[in-house]
Amino acid sequence: MEELLRVEDMHIFFHGEKGDVIPAVKGLNFHIREGETLGLVGESGCGKSLTSLSIMQLIPKASGFTEGRILLGDKDVNTCSEKEMRAIRGNEMSMIFQEPMTSLNPVHKIGKQIGEVLLLHDAGDPKTIEARTIEILKKVGIPRAEKIIDEYPHQLSGGMRQRVMIAMAMACNPKLLIADEPTTALDVTIQAQILDLMNTLQEEYKTAILLITHDLGVIAEMADRVMVMYYGQIVEEADVRSLFKEPKHPYTIGLLHSVPTLEAEDDEQLNPIQGTVPNLGDIHSGCPFRARCEKAFDKCIEENPPLIQMDSHSVRCWLYEEEEVST
Ligand SMILES: Nc1ncnc2c1ncn2[C@@H]1O[C@H](COP(=O)(O)OP(=O)(O)O)[C@@H](O)[C@H]1O
Ligand SMILES: [Mg+2]
């Protein structure tokens, strides 16, 4: 499969209150191929949303900036103007968020909002646009689409609103869909329907998906490859099977132990990771996970490990220093 997006040495910084800059995302490298689903998982505050906003160039200039390259084909979107970005967003890549109400305009009817997306990218007479809008709404499984176009976002359920968001994101058939916690706000049954819908659309349109979630169940269901993020860095990357079968990083192992499974023995306890993700700027040396890690030793305090290449994983942990394979 062809490579669609390549992120090279991405750093995201915030402007601090005293004129300083605070690093939030620290040296990400990854790629996404056409049609695949790459999962990005980690607890709240790890930098997942910042990563997605930065790819879309949606971090406000006043709050922060990105360094590094974000290559979409041979274009580096990190050097694109806002005008160029407006042509890229929606057309080449689009994004859906956890809470559709933040992206849907409450005072405009559903039909008008989808029609506007279509108009931005592909002019057409009002009749054609309306027909396209209805077609798209049907595609995302919205019943009574002809009626829904005249309704306002608040008249729809959470699941239906998320379907409308997906319709807007997919309206111009982007090559990449970034989904940031797309089902976190939904009930489990609705969540399963939305994930199903994303799978169906992906198969039909060969869209690549960057799926961001704190939920390993969603990752297991959807992803081909997974990156685990902690304190602004990737700490483990593997294909989805190897990650669940043989997690390597103590953080990944901890995340897996904090999820209930059907196979678990009755007396097996859920074991949440102690402590919380450190605040930005709190860690100045060593491995950022060491304070929560049962396996930490001297070296972990002194030096932050590099990503170590193993057969089917990359892992940022000194426990695996001896096992590195050269690639
Ligand atoms: N505008 C901002 N100014 C300063 N810090 C921010 C800002 N936005 C996010 N952060 C911080 O950046 C870190 C990563 O945030 P985020 O990407 O939203 O995490 P996630 O999506 O993984 O929960 C958090 O510690 C958050 O507090
Ligand atoms: Mg987030």
From TrEMBL:
Mode of membrane association: Peripheral membrane protein
Q: Where in the cell is it found?
A: Cell membrane
Name the domain of life this protein comes from.
Bacteria
Record keywords, A-Z? ATP-binding, Cell membrane, Membrane, Nucleotide-binding, Transport
**Domain (ABC transporter): residue spans on this chain:** 5-256
Q: What Pfam family is a match, any one? A: oligo_HPY
What Gene Ontology terms describe what this protein does at the molecular function level?
A: ATP binding
Which PROSITE patterns does the record cross-reference, listed alphabetically?
A: ABC_TRANSPORTER_1 (PS00211), ABC_TRANSPORTER_2 (PS50893)
- Whether Membrane counts among this entry's keywords is yes
Indicate where this protein is primarily found: membrane
Q: Which family does it belong to?
A: Belongs to the ABC transporter superfamily.
Descriptive protein name: ABC transporter ATP-binding protein
